[in-house]
Amino acid sequence: MTMLKRTLMASAIAFAAAGAAQAGEIAVIVKTTNSNFWQNVNKGAQAAIEGQSEHTMSFDGPAAESAIADEVNLVENAINRGVAGIVLAPSDPDALVPVVKRANENGIPVVIIDSMLADGAKGTYQAFLSTDNCAAGEEVAKRMIKDAGETGKVAIMSYVAGVGSEIGRVGCFTDYLKKNSKLEIVGPLYSQSQMATALNQTTDVLSANPDLVGIFGANEPTAVGMGRAIVQAGKAGQLTALGFDGNADLQQFVRDGVLEATAVQGSFAMGEKGVKTVIDLLAGKTVEDFINTGVVLVDKENIDSDEAKNVLY
């Protein structure tokens, strides 16, 4: 058992021992509300809250993932109004640690989704629900080698440097390519999860590197901007483009052959399981310390399958 697992388990047991089933608001706070991915988390959270009358659910987030101070304030506000529990997708691994500690000190269970907090938060939240981002990054890297070959240049279009999901996803993608191919990496470039920024960055990368054999857009707004730049440059189908997440734009890019494939997370499951985990904690139950919400590599061949439909949004 890892130290993280022992710490989370002890923390969850402590909340279970407290026992009192606490009714009230469960605050779901995500990195931004301006993204289909996070709106799909909202849908999952709503599904979890339906069919029971003991708890209500609120959903909020900043206007942009880079507005970290705004997210901190949203958590502060939730604590101040005495919510029963919090589901949090932290936009920064360090900046959210003090408010999560404060929630814990106030007896409010916190379930973290999508991105890990820094080590300083150990013992202050009760469960972590996420895609195994390292495993997902490796899966995308395997597909890149399979489709682009083992030599040439691959550009990495990333989002926010240092975010837990980015470290695992892009880090393990990079490490796998370095260990298992002779592909040369261009970047990573960071879009700050802004589609327009990703579009401009990709346009520049394509212009400066006409010999690219592959390109990876590591989250939804980045991959959408990347895809649009590829279309505008007339490069669709001329290099292996792989995305991450599964909104309508990315699905259309797959169908049109702009993207070879996109790795889609269980965003609905993050919201649904996140809220259910808080409800279990409030009922005095013990919970798993880590819940993997999974990833599906969606391409033209499987996009209409049940497996893909369950994760696309």
From TrEMBL:
It is found in: Cell envelope. Residues 1-23 form the signal peptide. Its main location: other. The keyword RNA-binding does not apply. One of its GO terms (molecular function) is carbohydrate binding. Residues 26-285 form the Periplasmic binding protein domain. GO terms for cellular component: cell envelope. The keyword Transmembrane does not apply. Keywords: Signal. Belongs to the bacterial solute-binding protein 2 family. This is Substrate-binding domain-containing protein. It comes from Jiella pacifica.
